[in-house]
Amino acid sequence: MGPHPAVAAIRLAVRRVLHDLLTEHHRTTAALPHEPPPPPLVLVACSGGADSMALASALAFESPKLGIRAGGVTVDHGLQPGSDVRAAEVVLRLRELGLDPVDSVTVTVGRAGGPEAAARDARYTALDTAAERHGAAAVLLGHTRDDQAETVLLGLARGSGIRSLSGMAAVSGAGGRYRRPFLELDRQTARKACMVQSLPVWDDPHNADPAYTRSRLRHEGLPALEKALGKGVVEALARTAQLSRDDADALDAWATQAEASVRDAAGLLECAKLYALPPAVRRRILRRAAIAAGAPAGSLFARHIEEVDRLITGWRGQGAINLPGKVVARRQGGRLVIRQG
Length: 341
Description:
By secondary structure, the chain is of the alpha/beta class. The protein has 12 helices and 10 strands. Helix content is 52%, strand content 12%. The model has no long low-confidence stretch (mean pLDDT 91).
């Protein structure tokens, strides 16, 4: 008799990602000298919640069969009393699963962008540092289809455009460091997998705290949508994310190809040539130019780019546009100049 369907589902999802990583590892090491390179190391980011514990258990089960080393990282954000104790418990559970190395990293959460964004930034910085310290080929994240649906709705509420609606990528980060095997699985599957394997899980009280936007969306917004529209909203939103990602990738590629053609010999953007481009392509070029000039990507919103775009499409002699990071965009002699001012 095989494993429970939930356990089989999470293991299959992880196995597919590990196969991809192994293929990439063999491709990059094929030209090395005769000495065989060590097997790749894959880390799992684990909070102790159901999603990440299910992911850790699947990684521990699948990695030995493929000759892959498997470890784990838990991040203590220090935002709740006893968080250090819980982090120590997670380390113990990961080691009991057979993962090695296992790190617990304590971070200081700032305030930039709000509590959720600040915690996320601190967490990813810690994960990047751990991956580099151990030379890990990848870090697995336990985001599920439900998380993807929430991300799409948050992007829709911000009015941030198609890239925001594309949600989380299955592969992201520098060099494809972050992998999300569970984006096609629902949250309940992960929880069920933990239950049938008798894996203890910790439910973060922040996930039920209405002070947090994502928590309100999870416990109030999505249930209200399903009540009004019927079941299947989560699946439809996740599908929207994938379709949006395909469109956004195509537009990004178009913008990359078009950018060289709209610059003059000095590298300045020519307004007339920009005007001739479709708005979606033109605004991507403007956003890249602003970021290249020093505007922080996380602080650069659609409204900023729309204001710069009006220097192209609605020129009436208006003054410079101030952007985050002390970057200034202005129109001069038919050219668009974007630089730190």
